[in-house]
Amino acid sequence: MIERTYLDWNATAPLRPQAREAMVAALDALGNPSSVHAEGRAARRLIDEARRRVAALVGAEPADVVFTSGGTEANATALCPTTGTDVLLVSAIEHPSVLAGGRFPAENVASVPVGPDGVLDLGALERQLGAVEQGARRAVVSLMHANNETGIVQPIAAAAALVHAAGGLLHVDAVQTAGRIPCDIKALGADLLSVSAHKLGGPKGVGALVRCSATVDWPAPLIKGGGQERGTRAGTENVAGIAGFGAAAAARDLAAEGRRLATLRGRLEGGLKGAFPRTVVFGEAAERLPNTTLFSLPGVKAETAVIGLDLAGVAVSSGAACSSGKVAASHVLAAMSVPGPLARGAVRVSLGYTTQEADIERFLAAWRTLAETLFKEQRGMAA
Ligand code: PLP
């Protein structure tokens, strides 16, 4: 079997050993966390500890964390009209779980553009908020902290100031940033924030919706039933998953890891351009997550590249992993006005804490072989 190189961390990150250990131990926790007996209290303690750790990761109080089945459910829960909020503004580059609009009727959802640099157009946001205010309405605004395809970090604190000046509420999808770059709910100015365990080395199928303080009301529950999660999310808790989430949230040194990944990414992009100077790196001039590169080489289609690299033992993705399987141009690159043929070649390489220089070299070697073979075939067909 050929050695595998995993460079698709924005799709999902490998389980951290600490998370596995915590989960295996929690699988033997017998009690239902809602039960008052000793077994129930032991399971409850595991959840409480994880709640403290997830809260610390994003600078919140434990009481302001509600566990969900992942980022998608956290987003869907957050996007809820409440008394006085009847308009939803979302940026054009949001994850599909936000673009779906949550519980807002489609006619009350509007899109805020980004510039060709992939950064939210703050002027447009201000104008759209002004129009909402003029109509004596109030907006919920949902913005991602960093984009899952390009890694471009959004000006959340500046957007928060505009949203709050217009009397609105800000939800931030921090699924790609929590555990990767500083992500403090108060520094960002977010009212609500979504996180997901599997992007930071926890298990798949667990996430959290976090609020900045008790001054922000929880949205109405999406899943109604028992009183778990203080009535905000019914259902017996996924104790092992939550314990794994907590362990993964606690295990990191953001600054050192960020610097290391930025160096590896620099080597990756330098290698891509050195081999093929026509390579385009999307969002290169903007602030990006240190682990993410989205690039295109004219003449190479993303589907061909992803399959070819997979056969060579390298796992990457084309655009968003959540939409892989569909050969549709990325809505993120369309929003950045990237021409169709260039967008259809977009390959995303995303790194993480186990990535080493040897992985980058293996990727570059596989990429060179693949692109040269494709170009040779194209020349043969043209001859
Ligand atoms: N938001 C962003 C920015 C994402 O990248 C993803 C997953 O790719 C999600 C939300 C959904 O999270 P989950 O997979 O936990 O449902």
Distance between the termini: 37 Å
According to CATH, the homologous superfamily of the largest domain is Type I PLP-dependent aspartate aminotransferase-like (Major domain)
Which descriptor suits the 3D outline? globular
Number of domains: 2
CATH topology of the largest domain: Aspartate Aminotransferase, domain 2
Spatial arrangement of strands, main beta sheet: 2-8-7-6-5-3-4
Q: For the residues shown, what is the average pLDDT?
A: 95
CATH class of the largest domain: Alpha Beta
CATH architecture of the largest domain: 3-Layer(aba) Sandwich
Query: For the CA atoms, what is the radius of gyration?
Result: 22 Å
- Structural class call reads alpha/beta
What is the makeup of the main sheet?
Answer: 7 strands, mixed
Order of helices and strands: EHHEHEHEHEHEHEEHHEEHEHHEH
Count helical runs: 13
